């Protein structure tokens, strides 16, 4: 199966993972904010969260969002308000066993870190990028040799590397003192994670 064979639901899932990965991995630029202004929603929890994110992108200035990103994730040279790493949430330390386990699973999946930045692979933005890649069969613009992963492979990766901690992280991000735009980002992420967790449980 290739990416063009994916059904609408999987393309939508992949799009949400990609959107959230972009929002968390770097400060939003004006082009990304403009894209967010085009989001649609509905009366579901996820739909309402998307509408809130559209509103945040429409009302906040790019510089304000950039400053917020810096405060949340970098701080004033002392580290930001939140640490978006699986190792930290699962062990209290950075670069710990969860990162080693992730690297082992990435190797088995044929996924190599692009090394485009210095962030370890257990950064939530990169984990969401991997989920996007498993669904679509492409990662960082490159086609994976294995193509799109089957649902079981997606579920195993999600259960091992995202499910144990990601909802806690986004709850902390939502509650962070500097969060405004990222309150809306967190709401989208939390709604997606609930849907994914429940869907995988039903498929197991």
Number of domains: 1
Question: What is the arithmetic mean of pLDDT?
Answer: 93
> What's the CATH C level?
Mainly Alpha
Shape: globular
Report the order of strands and helices: HHHHHHHEEHHH
Q: Would you identify the regions where 5 or more consecutive residues have pLDDT less than 50?
A: none
Molecular structure report:
The chain is an all-alpha fold and 204 residues long. The chain has one domain: TorD-like (Orthogonal Bundle), CATH 1.10.3480. The protein contains ten helices and two strands, in the order H-H-H-H-H-H-H-E-E-H-H-H. The chain has helices spanning 8-25, 30-36, 45-59, 62-73, 86-91, 97-109, 124-136, 151-161, 166-175, 181-203, and strands spanning 138-139, 142-143. It has a two-stranded antiparallel sheet. Strand 1 and strand 2 (142-143) form a beta hairpin.
């Amino acid at each position: 199966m290739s990416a063009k064979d994916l059904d609408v639901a999987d393309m939508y899932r992949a799009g949400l993972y990609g959107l959230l990965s972009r929002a968390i991995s770097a400060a939003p630029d004006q082009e990304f904010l403009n894209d967010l202004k085009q989001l649609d929603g509905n009366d579901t929890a996820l739909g309402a969260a998307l509408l809130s994110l559209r509103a945040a992108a429409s009302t906040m200035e790019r510089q304000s969002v950039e400053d917020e990103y810096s405060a949340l994730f970098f701080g004033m040279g002392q580290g930001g308000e939140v640490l978006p790493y699986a190792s930290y949430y699962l062990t209290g330390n950075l670069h710990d066993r969860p990162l080693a386990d992730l690297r082992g699973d990435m190797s088995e999946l044929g996924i190599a870190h692009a090394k485009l930045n210095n962030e370890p692979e257990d950064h939530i933005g990169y984990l969401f990028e991997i989920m996007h890649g498993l669904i679509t069969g492409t990662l960082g613009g490159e086609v994976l040799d294995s193509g799109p992963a089957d649902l079981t492979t997606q579920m195993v990766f999600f259960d091992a590397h995202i499910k144990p901690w990601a909802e806690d992280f986004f709850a902390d991000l939502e509650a962070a003192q500097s969060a405004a735009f990222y309150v809306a980002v967190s709401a989208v992420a939390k709604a997606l994670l609930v849907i994914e967790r429940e869907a995988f449980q039903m498929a197991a």
